[in-house]
Target: YbaB/EbfC family DNA-binding protein
Amino acid sequence: MARSFSSNRSRSPGRGSPFARVRERLARLAGALGLGLTTAAGGPATAQAPAQPVPQHWISYAQMTGNQFQAWLSDPDSQAVQRLHAWMQERMLQEGPAGPPAPLIVRVWVGQAGKVERLEFASLGQPQADEDLRALLTAQPLSEPPPPDMRQPMVLQLELGFVAKG
Model:
């Protein structure tokens, strides 16, 4: 499932509350967009003299992109998705129950036609899995082009979950 980012307006959220998690995710996205925001360990986000706040339309576009990527990575009819998920399941069986897989961090550059022009991520440790992931995220254009003023690359956190065919 894609990580969502929302407005930072909440009423005194407690540690671990949904509002605190949203605030932390927003701060991570802002930092990924190069605006100088960081998150303190376990605490609220602190600004390090940001040039300007992250525009809401950038956040919305990043959410839309993450959601589309998650849908593409969850298509049970795709051969690449089936291979990728089979490889992940095999890897988890070999490594033992270490908990859910860590989010996958991807750096994405999107052209004005909505086509992913460049994609970077840490290797999954298996060339075919890397190739399948790259193919899935670059095979088709996004439903919308990025805002003209949006800084790139976008840095997104994706969760690779398992899908079952039919």
Remarks:
- The chain has two domains: 1-54, 55-166.
- Residues 56-72 form the longest helix (17 residues).
- Residues 34 and 151 are 8 Å apart (CA to CA).
